[in-house]
Each structure stands twice: as C-alpha cells, then as structure tokens.
Design brief:
12 helices, 2 strands
Amino acid sequence: MYGGTRRFIVGAIVFLALVYGLTRVVSNEYVFFATYVVLQFIVLATAWNILGGYAGYVNFGSGAFFAVGAYTGVALFKAFEAPILVQVVAGATMSGLLGLAVGALSLRLRGIFFSIATVAVAIVIETAVVNTPYLGGAKGLPILRPAPPAMFQSYLEFVFFVMAVLAVIAVFCARYVETSWIGRGLRAIRDNEGAAECSGVPTLKLKLFAATLSGALMGAAGAPFAQYLSFIEPTSVFNLNYAVSALAMPIIGGMSHWLGPVIGALLL
C-alpha cells in the first residue's frame, strides 16, 4: 500500500509539472479553457463516486454542491477580493457542511428516496440564489479577473493549474478511501447495509463521512467557476448536466476503482 502511495505521489508531481510546462509552451488559451472542463469533471465524477459508487447512494444533487462552492467563492471575492485558493477552501468547507447536513437528514433513506431528497436540495438552493440580489440573482453577475500570479501569463492559465491540483487531490482522496477500512465499510454498506450494520460496521458514520467528503470535493470544483468564465448565473451553475455527467462518468469508467471516474471523464 505504501509503495503504491509513493508511486501515486511521484506520478502526481510529474503530472502537475507537465501541466505547468503546458502553460509555458502553449499560447492558445482555448487549450486551457477546454482542458479545464475535463479536469473539473474528473473532480466531480470522483467526488460523486465516493458516495454513489463506493456506498451505493445515488446523488442527483451534484449541481447543488457545485453551485454552493461557486457562489461561496463569488461572495468572498465580491466582499473581500479573496484569492482563489481562499475561495476553494471556503467553497469546499461550505459544500462539505452541506453534505453533512443533507446526509444527517436523508441518509437514513435508501434507494430512490435518497436520490429524490438530493434533487429537492438542489431546487431549494437554486431558488435561494435566484432571489439573492447580492449574488446576481437570476440575471447573473460579471466577474473581473484579477492579475495573474507572476508564474503565469494569464489568469486562465492559473485557474487551469488550480483545477489540475484539485483533480490530483480528489483522486488521491478517492484512492485513500478505497484502499482503507473506510472503503471496505462503504462497500459493505453498498452490498448489504443491514448485514454490515449487524456485523459492527458504523454505517451511519461512514455514510456521513462519504457525504461530507463528496460534497467538499464538489464544492472545491465549483469555487473557481466564476473566475473561469468571468461570469456566473444560476442557469449554468445549477445545470442538470453536472448531475448527469457526474453520475455517467463513473458508470462508464467503472465505479469499483478510483481510476474509473478519471477514465469516464476522459472518455465522455
């Protein structure tokens, strides 16, 4: 296990070095604009798989967690001009807390009933955002990108690199969960929750952990969204495409392995 972790870390460092090297040799910003989307969906698909793939609880509200991260970043940038790393941490924290709250209220439900509850959460949050003028309401809010850090030629390159780092963190978290006792417990819940509980598996605690981590990663993926587009509005952030793609990508790539969502995101 430890040898595999070392190889993963070395591979991640090499990957990030290649990503940074790409920003130095490629001048066409559309490359970063398009590749950002792939990296974003790697994070979303990986995050969804922690709860939906490992534990078997299908979440149709991915857009809600993504949007909470995005609008948390917008609020901090508008109020304090907070840097993007602060936005990511805050977005992940808020979405993680949302995941914990939703899990505490709905993870005792099973099957389609839990999925319906996650859809309801997305509708409630979208309604709240649409009726909040400070966040742009229904018409949206333009965002003026700050100056890029010295290591990057444009802010889009910097946001692209940040998303690459988030993709590595998300995959690392999924890999750790899968190979640890947490992953074994989640798989036991997926296969037969009643039997797992009778065998001493702390089912509720594991489900809450998975919901919190999944939500936090989705929120982190959403935090740079406004800086990426220079604009944010509810229709695009709460797009059903996020929920469908986050579900479809692990199914295509394989839900039983941490590499599955990555393969699914690349293919889809």
